[in-house]
Write a structure and sequence with these properties.
Helices cover 64% and strands 5% of the residues. It is mostly helical and 941 residues long. It binds adenosine-5'-triphosphate (ATP). The site of adenosine-5'-triphosphate (ATP) has 17 residues, from helix 34 and helix 42. This is Sigma-54-dependent Fis family transcriptional regulator.
């Protein structure tokens, strides 16, 4: 193909959508029509005649064809085909509707009746064209008769009667193309045996090639293809060798035929696993096709190379080759469809689902039934379902039902497509019923889906049985190379059956060959499973990295999708696990490790900061009240940083005296002080390659501050009592619950050290400002406690929850943790009530150091903000809780409670009677609530 037709250069950015854009395809189509027109005429055709018959668009096409060297303009405004043009036309004969229409319009223009007959037949091989030919007389009558037999006879028993091709002379090449294409059409229309028989006959001694020299043309490769499709590989290869030798390169058809046979031989070699031979054959085809100017054949070689690349799991290369092939084959049905099919598979494996969907959707109509289409339709439907585009899947299913004849293969293909659709809709029972009718358990695509459906229905044991049968079948067929998909499914089934260690083993095997999984298999399911497994066990770091991998994969998959497609995709693939994962931590802070729990805005803002600092190596200063989770946050910074694989070493600077701290941080030499019996590496050295967490850094003495500053500035230090300089690669995260800036102003902390440590400042919010996190964390700690004692988790009564929400939590998460653990132990019932909780909270308050902030208005207003209601309701709630707590402390005694609260007994009684819970707490549940007027007064109280 001439460069003039490559409107947009092939680039890796090309997508099927861009390559198949109408504007891009149109010139190629017009070129074909022009070439056909030029070739159809026995004599060079006048351009004006052509334009009259076919319209001006064709005239433009003719010019394009001339520019491309496919036609020649002769003096007098006539058009004649150049060498390979006949070939170009013939390949498209019958396959493209416009070409058939063109043939019909050209037929009256042909001067020779033979040509008119052929054109009419080409225009409508099974309908009107044939009827008109039947009534025709003359030399074509016997051919018409033969074709009629061929077209009408769906069984191999009826052979076409011999046709007399001798008088066709120069048109033998035409006849060869026509017969080959007619055979393809027969196959596509569900009469494969008839199509095969037609070609076999035409190649025989009484057929076309026996009578007309050089008429092998398109018949030989077609025959070879048919033999391969029928599983007669040996016979096909022997025929191809013979046919190739018999062909000379005298005509473009012979060259085409020979190269086509070679492509097919390469495919046979590839299927037999001889990739070296296949590559050699494809390379020779590409070189010769380039030399002969056969662009289509270069395109076919590229399709073959793309298949090789895909099999070697080089998907990016496969995509590039596929796109290049598509450019060369633009409009060449059905080769273009084969290129699109391969492209679709490569895109799918790369996780580029929308492009995969576009390529597969475009590929389908041009593929041959029953061979490619029956296999490709369920795959394309699966891709639609994967994207949640059930409407498109339905459309394809309907097309498949209309296309596939009532053959066992057709039924299988339709059943699979339907089962995919049912699975996508969550109609698992229906999917199982569909699959049950389809065939044996170990037939791979049926087995995969059956396991999916059984798992979804919670029938894990049955799923295991089906999977075993499937594995056995695959094992027998494929030897040692098990598809990674099998291991993945094995992991899911094992997990569903509670066999975590088998699940882990299977996952490891699946992950060893991620490239063998289709994108949807690996990308979502394996990662989610890895996560699920890692959440069940393993270290924090393992859980973290599994979670990160899952989320990164999720983002990689969904980000390129349009918002609409993403929504569809999520609907189908947001399995509960993934939902929990994503729901628990919204997209922007998803990389917070699982052990840092919380969902409040204040917590999320702090996590977002942590995530940002983690990516750099700058020192970090964490500030927050005691127990807010500073150490945990420091660990999180480490775990999500590039140092995650290195050590995390924590030092509490307040816990040890000055001397010991220095030796603890920097290590010491033997004999450097009493008790230093051996050389000891310090925390700095231990943290080499990782993170050093300096907790309570404000408590370091001035001497310690000076030593630390030196070490941080020079990134080197000496061990205590030593002279050798030790260099380490450590990131320092420091924490303080005192305001360090204030300490600097008060002269208690070195300013230069403060600046060193305060590379980035992150403030962690106190628990009382974290709203619903209190209950979220409390529930989490209850679950932890349940796991440890090995029983079902307890919960808090609504009243206890109210107490938890209202408590100021001076000791923050640590206090909550301790309180929940104590309540879990103390409560005899599954629901932990206020009676158990209130004293624990009270004691905590008594023990807490009075903090100025708590006494001031700021805390109360923060509580009010958390409450979120009106001030009146808030004050009523405060009153209710104060009374409730006091009632608990006073054993429900109203007199004592009133005294403790310093209000009158009658006022207290009014309020108590107006609230069912308080009535119960004071043992007055039998008493009537106050009358409306009294109730209003009670509320005011
Ligand atoms: N977001 C959180 N999710 C789950 N547990 C948490 C969270 N934050 C803190 N904790 C738990 O609370 C306790 C205190 O956390 P941590 O020791 O990190 O706090 P801290 O701020 O470093 O305390 P201090 O200032 O007293 O050293 C630990 O048991 C920790 O596991």
């Amino acid at each position: 193909m001439a460069p003039g037709f490559l409107l947009v250069p092939v680039s890796p950015d090309d997508t099927p959508a861009s390559l198949l854009h109408p504007e891009r395809r149109e010139p190629a189509r017009r070129r074909r029509l022009a070439v056909l027109a030029a070739c159809a005429a026995p004599q060079p055709l006048s351009l004006s005649v052509l334009a009259d018959a076919l319209g001006d668009a064709l005239l433009d096409g003719a010019h394009l064809a001339c520019d491309a060297g496919l036609c020649r303009k002769l003096p007098g405004g006539t058009l004649a085909p150049a060498g390979s043009a006949t070939l170009d036309m013939a390949v498209n004969l019958l396959e493209v509707p416009e070409v058939r229409a063109t043939c019909a319009r050209l037929a009256p223009l042909a001067s020779a009746p033979d040509e008119a007959l052929l054109l009419m037949l080409a225009a409508d091989p099974l309908g009107e064209g044939r009827r008109r030919l039947e009534s025709a007389t003359g030399r074509a009558a016997s051919m018409v008769e033969g074709l009629r037999h061929a077209l009408d006879a769906p069984s191999a028993r009826t052979r076409p009667t011999p046709w007399d091709f001798e008088p066709w002379g120069a048109q033998a090449r035409w006849a060869s193309a026509l017969l080959a294409t007619t055979a393809h059409v027969l196959v596509r229309m569900g009469h494969p045996e008839s199509g095969h028989a037609l070609v076999a006959w035409a190649l025989g001694p009484k057929g076309l090639t026996g009578r007309v020299a050089g008429a092998h043309g398109f018949l030989a490769p077609t025959h070879f293809q048919f033999l391969l499709d029928a599983g007669r590989r040996e016979e096909g290869v022997a025929f191809a060798r013979e046919a190739r030798e018999a062909l000379d390169d005298a005509t473009p058809e012979s060259t085409y035929s020979r190269l086509m046979l070679t492509v097919l031989e390469g495919r046979v070699a590839m299927d037999a696993g001889d990739e070296k031979l296949a590559r050699r054959l494809f390379t020779s085809v590409e070189t010769q096709a380039r030399a002969a100017g056969l662009g289509d054949m270069v395109g076919l070689a590229k399709v073959a190379f793309a298949t090789l690349a895909r099999r070697a799991e080089q998907n990016t290369a496969a995509i590039q080759l596929g796109l290049a092939a598509l450019e060369l084959l633009c409009g060449e049905v059905p080769f273009e469809s084969v290129a699109l099919l391969g492209l679709g598979h490569a895109y799918s494996r790369e996780g580029r689902h929308l492009e995969a969907q576009a390529a597969l959707t475009r590929a389908l109509p041009g593929l041959d039934i029953p061979f490619q289409q029956l296999r490709a339709y369920p795959q394309a439907i699966a891709t639609d379902c994967f994207l949640g585009d059930t409407a498109e899947a339905e459309r394809k299913l309907a097309a498949l039902v209309a296309l596939a004849a009532d053959t066992p293969e057709g039924r299988l293909s339709i059943g699979l497509g339907r089962a995919h659709l049912q699975c996508a809709r969550g109609e698992w029972e229906a999917a199982l019923a569909t699959l049950d009718g389809l065939g044996p358990l170990d037939a791979a695509p049926i087995g995969w889906l059956r396991v999916e459906a059984l798992l979804a229905l919670g029938r894990a044991r049955e799923a295991a049985r089906v999977l075993d049968a499937l594995a056995q079948g695959l094992y027998l067929r494929e030897g040692a190379t098990q598809p990674a998909r099998l291991h993945l499914l094995d992991a899911r089934v094992a997990l569903a059956n509670g066999d975590a260690s088998r699940a882990r083993r299977a996952l490891r095997r699946a992950s060893a060959r991620p490239d063998r999984l289709r994108a949807q298999d690996l990308a979502l399911r394996a990662q989610v499973l890895t996560l699920q497994l890692a959440e069940d066990g393993g270290t924090d770091a393992q859980r973290l990295s599994a979670r990160q991998a899952a989320l990164a994969e999720w983002r990689r998959l969904t980000e390129p999708l349009s918002p609409e497609a993403r929504a569809r995709f999520r609907r189908v693939y947001d399995r509960p696990q993934l939902l929990a994962l994503l729901g628990e931590a919204p997209a922007e802070e998803v990389s917070a490790p699982a052990y840092l729990r919380g969902g409040s805005a204040a917590f999320r803002a702090a996590m977002a900061q942590l995530r940002r600092v983690a990516s750099s190596d700058t020192s970090v200063l964490l500030f927050g009240e005691t127990g807010v989770g500073k150490e945990l946050a420091a660990r999180a910074i480490h775990d999500v940083s590039r140092r995650a694989a290195g050590p995390f070493v924590a030092v509490n600077c307040a816990a040890i005296n000055d001397e010991l701290l220095l030796s603890d941080l920097f290590g010491h030499e033997r004999g450097s002080f009493t008790g230093a019996v051996a050389r000891q590496r310090g925390r700095f050295e231990q943290a080499h390659g990782g993170t050093l967490f300096l907790d309570e850094v404000a408590d370091i003495s001035p001497r310690g501050q000076a030593a630390l500053l030196r070490a941080l500035q020079e990134r080197a230090f000496q061990r205590v009592g030593g002279t050798e300089e030790v260099r380490v690669d450590v990131r320092v995260v420091a924490a303080s619950n005192r305001n360090l800036a204030k300490a600097v102003r008060a002269g208690e902390f070195r300013q230069d050290l403060f600046f060193r440590l305060n590379g980035i400042h992150v403030e962690l919010p106190p628990l009382r400002e974290r709203g619903e996190d209190v209950l979220l964390l409390a529930t989490h700690f209850l679950q932890e406690a349940a796991q440890e004692r090995g029983g079902p988790p307890k919960s808090f009564s609504p009243e206890a929850e109210r107490l938890l929400r209202a408590h100021p939590w001076p000791g923050n998460v640590r206090e909550l943790h301790n309180t929940v653990r104590a309540a879990d132990v103390l409560s005899d019932t599954r629901a932990i009530g206020a009676a158990v909780l209130a004293p624990l909270l009270q004691r905590a308050l008594e023990c807490a150091e009075p903090r100025p902030a708590l006494a001031g208005m700021t805390d109360v207003s923060a509580l009010f903000r958390q409450h979120g209601g009106s001030l009146r309701d808030f004050l009523a709630e405060v009153q209710r809780q104060c009374i409730a707590q006091s009632l608990v402390e006073n054993g429900g005694n109203v007199v004592a409670t009133a005294a403790a609260l310093r209000i009158s007994r009658s006022r207290l009684t009014q309020v108590v009677l107006g609230n069912a819970e308080l009535r119960r707490m004071s043992g007055r549940e039998q008493d009537a609530p106050p009358a409306p007027a009294r109730r209003a007064r009670a509320r005011r109280a």
